[in-house]
Amino acid sequence: MENINSEPALFYKEINPLTDKINGPMLVQKIDTKELFVKKCYPLYLEEHLTTLKTIKHAHLPKIQECIIQDGKLWLYEEFVQGKTLTEVIQSSERLETEKIVTIAMAVLEALGALHKKGLVHRDVKPGNIMITNEETVKLIDFDAVRTVDGEKESDTVQLGTMGFASPEQFGFAESDERSDLYSLGVVMNICSVKEYPKKHLTEDLILRGIIKKATKLEPTERYQTALEMHLALRQQLSKQRTAAKQNKRQISTSKKRPVNITMNARPFTNRWGTNTYVNQVVTRGRRVLDSISLFFKKFIPGFRTEKIWKRVVALFFYTMLFVSIVGNVFGQPTRSLKISEFVDYLFIFIIPMLLFTNFLDYQRKLPLFSSDNKRYRYIGYGVLFLFWVVITKAGLELNSYIYKQIN
């Protein structure tokens, strides 16, 4: 861990307090560079989390300059973000355009993805903690409620969050994790759209409704599981909206330019390749298919569910070798019955255990032992899974051998 001391505090000059609270945020200026920062007091138990936060450099997160312990208090010096909070933007507008809501949400998801990658959960995503800078850049701020994901606790040690935006698990029902932040962002999006909580009035916007509904499910397993998954869903919806808008614009433009055809029975000649509309539709559909395939791999296929390149390379190599081995050995058999017998052997010895023990299609979330927060129960679950594989493999191979003998 980084050595934290009070010496760097000497290089900053206090300008003025930003609130009337005691030990509230203070605007300070670094003496040598003249840069402005916000000096804010945090609880000492957040020292390790904020030190980790300092290592994250991201366009949608404020720059953390210093973590200093001084007079028994922890002070964080972070970038002074000039602009408006999303709360102020919402209050000053009758309604935000759908595309702007999606753009803001995607930026917040990118910030959350950076936090989650380091094992941190923000736990207080709300309009007041989302800044829109003077340059129209979105920044997720305020880390009073940040914590790390433990994975072994039944609930959070410190229950924090803003009522209405915080997920159910943040109030003692379970341990909060990445999905808790996605729940809060879903609420924020609904507030942006109709200025109401989704429980009271879910937006009717066709682009946003389905995404908000899924993000704010009470059961975490039914929500988006990662910031990347929700980001892809928003990107697809945004792409649909832009494509539809372009098509409408072209149709209006074409109808204005099209001459009146006074021949009642003549059918005007149209060449669908003569305009870009058809090509754009094909390209858009292709992108949707690729996005769907990418999302499927990242969500379900072992080895591709993380952002680590080396794991994906190893997984791709393993799947390729397994496929080549199966095809080579199965189709190398001289008779049809031997081909079937060889494939069944591969099925029980290699394919089934791979599917079982790598949690293919995330099926373990639906099993009681694996969905438990207790590590001991999960170990028992793997033991039961191993016995299950041994039993079905023995039975399957014996049946395969018996059938082969009967045929031949």
Draw up the topology in text.
Layout: E1 12-17, E2 26-30, E3 36-42, H1 47-54, E4 64-70, E5 73-79, E6 83-85, H2 86-91, H3 98-117, E7 120-121, E8 130-133, E9 138-140, E10 147-148, H4 178-194, H5 209-215, H6 227-257, H7 276-300, H8 309-331, H9 336-357, H10 375-407
Antiparallel strand pairs: 1-2, 2-3, 3-5, 4-5, 6-8, 7-10, 8-9
Largest sheet: number of strands, sense, barrel closure: 5 strands, antiparallel
What is the name of the CATH topology of the largest domain?
A: Transferase(Phosphotransferase), domain 1
How large is the count of helical segments?
A: 10
CATH superfamily of the largest domain: Transferase(Phosphotransferase) domain 1
Question: Would you mind describing this structure in some detail?
Answer:
It holds the Pfam family Pkinase. The chain crosses the membrane at residues 309-331, 343-360, 380-397. The protein is α+β, with helices and mostly antiparallel strands and 408 residues long. It folds into three domains: 7-79, 2-Layer Sandwich (Phosphorylase Kinase, domain 1); 83-231, Transferase(Phosphotransferase) domain 1 (Transferase(Phosphotransferase), domain 1, Orthogonal Bundle); 309-407. Helices cover 47% and strands 11% of the residues. The chain is built from ten helices and ten strands. The chain has helices spanning 47-54, 86-91, 98-117, 178-194, 209-215, 227-257, 276-300, 309-331, 336-357, 375-407, and strands at residues 12-17, 26-30, 36-42, 64-70, 73-79, 83-85, 120-121, 130-133, 138-140, 147-148. The chain is globular.
